[in-house]
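[agent] plan:
  1. take the single chain provided in the ticket
  2. run structure prediction with default settings
  3. attach structure tokens to the ticket
  4. add a short note for the reviewer (M.T.)
[agent] executing step 1
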Amino acid sequence: MDLRVETDGKTEDKKIEVVGTDTQYVVDTFGRPRRIAIDPNGWLLKATPDLQVRIAILKGQQLVARAT
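[agent] step 2 finished; step 3 output follows
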């Protein structure tokens, strides 16, 4: 997983190895972090219009199933 850490003096890109559903990690930075972006390039957590439509349909189907 890629992380982008913005500090007062510098922006750093880091790679974190994710294994399984729970991974602990430590990120060393040049300065105090001001902003952290997870997957800044959208490689893993991509949200395309097609994906958003499919999610909306699934949520609707779940609501209908709960109501019946």
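[agent] step 4 note for reviewer: The chain is about 30% helix and 25% strand.
[agent] ticket updated
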